[in-house]
Structure formats: C-alpha cells, structure tokens
Write a structure and sequence with these properties.
single chain; 251 residues; alpha+beta; two-stranded antiparallel sheet; elongated
Length: 251
C-alpha cells in the first residue's frame, strides 16, 4: 500500500471502481493515466470472508459502494460498511476489514439478529413515538369511544402514520437480509413494545385496583392496541412478503 494515500480521498474512489477486491503495490503508470493495481475486473463480485481475524490472500470484501475507508498511522487500510451484492441480492454491510501487507483481513461484523431485527425495530419504534409526539404537540386530540364498561382511545392522526413506521422497520430488516419473521416483527415492534408495557402495568394494577377495575383496564388496553397493530401490519406486510424465508446465521 506504498502508493495508497487515502488522505486525498481519490484512492477510495479508485478502489470502489475496481470493485474493492484488493490493492497491492505496483510501479506508477504514466502521468494522467489510471493504473489497475489489483482485484477483480468483473463488476458486482461477492466477498470472500475466510476466517475472522485471519489475513489471507484469497480474502476480499467484494464489490461495494458507499463504503468508508481510511488509513491508520502504520499504513494499514481499513474499510467499513457499504452496499453491494450478497447472497444473490443487494445488501447493506456492517463489516470491518483491514488491508495490510497485500492481504485482506475480515475483522468483525455486527451480529445478524442485531442487524436484521433490533436496529430496524428500533427505527420503527422511534418513528412511531416521534409521530405520536408530533401529533400531540400539534394539538391533534385523540377520540374517546365509550363501549359499556370500557373507554377506548383512538388516535386517528397517529394511526395514519403507523403504516409508514411499520414499512420502515420491515424494509430495513429486508435490506439487511432478514427473514420474513424478522421483517414482520421489526415492523410490528412498536405495538409489541406497547403490549409488553401493558402487561407490566396489568400485573401492577392487579395489586392496586379491585378485580373488576383491573380487568376493565387490561381489556381496554389490549383492545386499544389492535388498531395500531393493524396499521403497522399494513405497512410491514408487503416487505415481509418479499423477504427470504431463510435468513443468515449469526456472525
């Protein structure tokens, strides 16, 4: 990597153009002309990961774009993330590579479950809570519906935005290679989290309220989650349907 000066940012572009499949030393070409240093000359090459933490001449991060690269003080080149081909589809990477002494080393990768479920689920939950907050601050009032012993809270402005929140979680999960269950669960995560909260409050309410009041609270709260769940499902289902039935194993 003697001729690789990443501080100019130009090398990163060069390596992306050649597929980020490798880099070596060579004598510089004529001034003003490109020199093919190394790597595959075929586009959309998939990576060869090898053994994690072990350098090998056959290792390669594969062709990808939007990756972040830099050089440390000792001259090693580091590569993180990007977007490119993987397992027959496009993929958002979260892996870390090091190039040193003419060999690539796969350093680390985010746990598959974190990448395909927890992060998309967190995005879906954050988006749902942000929409609820914006609706509240905007002065949009919920609608109260009384039915017998229970009163239901229907927040129509919030319900309208929930399909988008569910779609965001499912889409990100699918892009990360998640299975159908992961895509659907990521999209439905806001109502899953709220159901868990209701369960905790129900247990607490059992010891605070008399039995009739406790049952009323539990049933009203659970039934009040049906509409948000349906709205989230409406947005998540199309992306979950397109996801693979089999997912990646944990890295």
């Amino acid at each position: 990597m003697d001729n690789c000066d990443l501080r100019t940012g130009a090398l990163t572009l060069v390596m992306i153009l050649v597929g980020l499949s490798g880099c070596g030393t060579s004598s510089p070409g004529p001034q003003g002309e490109w020199t093919w240093v190394g790597g595959s000359n075929i586009e959309n090459q998939t990576g060869v990961y090898g053994i994690q933490g072990t350098p090998s001449a056959s290792n390669s991060p594969g062709g990808r774009q939007w990756a972040v690269g830099w050089r440390d003080k000792t001259g090693n080149f580091w590569l993180f993330g990007g977007w490119g081909p993987h397992l027959g589809s496009t993929y958002l990477f979260s892996d870390l590579w090091k190039y040193s002494a003419g060999q690539w080393t796969w350093i680390s990768a985010m746990n598959t479950r974190t990448r395909t479920f927890w992060l998309p689920a967190l995005v879906s939950l954050t988006a749902a809570m942000a929409c609820l907050t914006i609706s509240t601050l905007g002065g949009l009032e919920p609608r109260l519906i009384a039915r017998g012993w229970a009163t239901y809270v229907v927040y129509i402005p919030w319900l309208v935005t929930l399909p988008l929140c569910g779609a965001a979680g499912a889409y990100l999960s699918r892009r990360a290679g998640g299975e159908r269950w992961a895509c659907l669960a990521a999209g439905l995560f806001p109502v899953i989290a709220m159901t868990s909260l209701v369960g905790v409050l129900t247990v607490i309410g059992k010891f605070i309220y008399a039995k009739p009041h406790w049952l009323n609270f539990s049933m009203a709260a659970l039934l009040g989650l049906i509409l948000p769940g349906m709205a989230l499902f409406l947005g998540a289902a199309p992306f979950a349907r397109l996801a693979r039935t089999g997912g990646l194993t944990d890295d």
